[in-house]
Amino acid sequence: MKELLNTIYKRKSVRKYDKNQQLSVEQMNSLKLYISQLQPLVPDISYHLEIVKREDTSAKFGEYCLLFYSEEKPFYLLNAGYILEQIDLYLESQYIGVCWYGMAHPKNKTVNGLKHVIMLAFGPSYPLVFRQNTSEFNRKEINTIWSGDFDEEIKEIVRLAPSACNTQSWHFTSSSDRVTIYRDPKIRSIIPKSKLTYFNSIDLGIVMCFFDIALINKGYSYQRTLIDQKTDDNLVKIATYQIKK
Ligand SMILES: Cc1cc2nc3c(=O)[nH]c(=O)nc-3n(C[C@H](O)[C@H](O)[C@H](O)COP(=O)(O)O)c2cc1C
User: pLDDT > 90: what percent of the chain?
Assistant: First the structure.
């Protein structure tokens, strides 16, 4: 995961693909190799990844779709976000276009008893579709998503994480060696209320992937505890990190 840091600063959802090109056998083999080395957030949740042609889904763009199927155990949505974000960043690091695609559905809703959770669309994109500078990210200001002192570079990295409809429903608090991550269930969005917790839970897995990449790169070690608990401030506590340098 460590090697994914540089891509965080330039990633961008790609929705326009070059239909005159196809991914090469080497690119597909490298992706499959990368998939065999993914780091789960919760190791005992079974999941299955499948690469299908876009035509086998309702997706409107991309040459392929990467389908994520999972057991529905506690934290499985966080786990899906955490795992697929590694692939999102990996594909972008290879200059392959990719976009999270919550609105699309595959033909097969289950595989071996595992439920379809979400997919990524990906394929050859045009050159220079990625971001050149962090000023190109449309994101909340750091002070609105993080309260407390902490490594400023790490705060900036988590700020750049993608989320469904850019909702950014996360909130971080920190004291010297402890960081707590919350989900704001009252976030405003065009996502239907019935689907908001679902997508925002995937988003929280994505932001934890960014946080872990940042911590590892800056030489911090940590112990993470996952939680799912409403607080008095109308937030949902998702995780605490005990951090050491
Ligand atoms: C869980 C999730 C679901 C998403 N679903 C869709 C989707 O159905 N269609 C789409 O065009 N973009 C989708 N996106 C992409 C977001 O709109 C995008 O990440 C966000 O607006 C931030 O922009 P960026 O990725 O270019 O930084 C999704 C993103 C996430 C994380």
Answer: 93
